[in-house]
Every structure is written in C-alpha cells, then in structure tokens.
Amino acid sequence: MEQRVASLEAKMDKVQETLNSITVTLAKIEATIVTKDDISPVRSDVAVIKTSLDAKATSASVAEIKGRVDALPTMPKISAILVLALTAATMILGIYHHGIIARWW
Questions:
Q1: pLDDT digits (tens, 9 = 90+) for 81-104
Q2: Where are the domains of the chain?
Q3: DSSP characters for the chain?
Q4: Looking at the whole model, is its pTM more than 0.70?
C-alpha cells in the first residue's frame, strides 16, 4: 500500500508541475488579451474612417463620370466642327460679298 501511495505522490508532483506551467501560460495570455476598453478607441477611429469613406466617390459614381468623360467630344471631332463652321462662314461671306444672292432674286 505504501508503494501505491508513493507512486500517487510522485504522479501528483508531476500534475502539480503541469498545473504550474498552465498557470504561467495563462498569465502570459492574460497579459496580451485585449479588453473591451482597449477596443473602444479603435471603434471610434473606425467610425470616423467609415464616415470619411462614405463621402468619397464610389465605384458607381466613378463609372458614371468615366462614361460622361468618354462621351465628350475629342480633339478630332472639335477640329472637324471648327473646319465645317469656318467653311460655312467663308461660303456665306463669299456669297454676300460677290452678290450671288442678289442675282438669284
């Protein structure tokens, strides 16, 4: 019987060492755990960032603006319109200058 008790005591010493090791590990974990109070400033920062992001352009608004920009006339189109306008103005001025309209009427 004494031998069994001695064996149990030896095993209990090992169990006690294991429990001490677990206690040390738990203390280290507790030191690194973030509490609710630690997170509240981060939450307020996230809320501020979210509010500022809501005011920024979304992908839909950027796509709409891109479509509008793509629909704007290009330099060749503007040049062609100017050439046509100048040609029309030159023809009208030439007609009035030479009196072609007066001869037709």
A1: 999 999 999 888 877 766 665 555
A2: 73-105
A3: -HHHHHHHHHHHHHHHHHHHHHHHHHHHHHHHPPPHHHHHHHHHHHHHHHHHHHTSPPHHHHHHHHHHHHHSPPHHHHHHHHHHHHHHHHHHHHHHHHTHHHHH-
A4: no
